[in-house]
Hints:
- With 204 residues, this protein is α+β, with helices and mostly antiparallel strands.
- Helices cover 65% and strands 16% of the residues.
- The longest helix has 50 residues.
- The chain is elongated and about 135 Å long.
Amino acid sequence: MNELTAALTAASGWLALAALVVGLVALLWLAALQTRVRLVTPDMRRLVRDMEGKSLEQVTQDLLANMELLSGRLGRLQVASDELAQRLQTTVQSQGLVRYNADGTVGGELSFALALLDGERNGILLTCLHTLDECRLYIRQVDRGACAHELSEEEAEALDVAAHGRRREREEARRTRRTRWRERDQSRSSRGASTHTRGDEGAE
């Protein structure tokens, strides 16, 4: 009898320790459940509010109807987006502008060539020639980045910029053209000065 009592006394300590461990695990599990409930509670409240006075079947049907409604709206938005993208292809997408002096009598680069192209490189080419006596404006049609008429250097450059965006080549061409204009103006100035000198010598 004494041996049974001693065994029970020794086992009671282990049982108490096991009960304590189980209690701690249960407390941790309850804490985790409470945290999850706090996270889910707002969504559950919204769902319960929507389900108020309705059966589960009615709520399911409402959700399916809303999904079909949203699907239809998304389909219409996609169609509208495709139509808008197609229309944008016919609007001006790129342009190329080249200013220059049509002749040596007028400076300031008042003449210009302007190319306006859409997404398929169709559009128009405007050319304005400004001189002392008049100002002329020409319009040419551009189809797929090409023009059926013969183009000047400035017109071809403007069209190339609009169709391909070659800005670096445009700047190089502009610098070359300005250098050629300066050389031409200097040559004219030199000829004018020499003519004036010969006239003074003849008068003497």
